[in-house]
Design a protein that fits this description.
- The chain has 153 residues and is α+β, with helices and mostly antiparallel strands.
- The protein has a single domain, classed as Hotdog Thioesterase (Thiol Ester Dehydrase, Chain A), CATH 3.10.129.
- The protein has helices at residues 6-10, 58-77, and strands at 4-5, 24-28, 32-37, 83-93, 105-114, 118-127, 130-141.
- A seven-stranded antiparallel beta sheet has the order 1-2-3-5-6-7-4.
- The longest helix has 20 residues, at 58-77.
Length: 153
């Protein structure tokens, strides 16, 4: 697998600057992706509130992994759809905060089903062997109803 680092990720998903939370992709295939991140430790993480980074921000880490997965799949079939997180459900967490963790987190997302309109993923965020947060997320594709159109002169 080609090494997919933070610069590669940031150049392909809409999350720019410090809002691009993932450091690298460590594994992926047609149905799943695994990413690593350290941005939860950064004092300038844009998701911090009152200096703290709550565990529910793990959903954003997972959503970004799903976005990267979509880009990787689009690179394979040469199509691309903009995705929007529309719901999360069955979310369970085992800690209150991410910023207290002194080390890398690992983000797993697995595509459970999908079509040209929506995709269902399951996700888990780990610190070592500990599951920090897990759940399911629905993604709507091309929610504006528009698709890429060819420009004509």
């Amino acid at each position: 697998m080609k090494f997919l680092d933070h610069a590669w990720i940031a150049s392909r998903i809409p999350h720019k600057g410090s809002m691009c939370l993932l450091d690298r992709v460590t594994d992926w295939n047609e149905t799943r992706i695994v990413c690593k991140a350290n941005s939860h430790r950064s004092p300038d993480n844009p998701l911090r509130q009152e200096g703290r980074l709550g565990i529910t921000t793990g959903v954003e880490y997972a959503a970004q992994a799903m976005a990267v997965h979509g880009v990787l799949l689009a690179d394979n079939d040469k199509s691309h759809a903009t995705g929007y997180l529309t719901s999360v459900r069955n979310v369970h967490w085992n800690r209150n905060r991410l910023d207290e963790l002194d080390g890398e987190i690992e983000v797993h997302a697995e595509r459970l089903s999908g079509n040209e309109i929506s995709i269902l993923y399951s996700f888990r965020v780990f610190f070592g062997e500990e599951v920090l947060i897990e759940g399911k997320a629905s993604i709507m594709l091309n929610a504006t109803g528009s698709s890429k159109k060819e420009k004509t002169s």
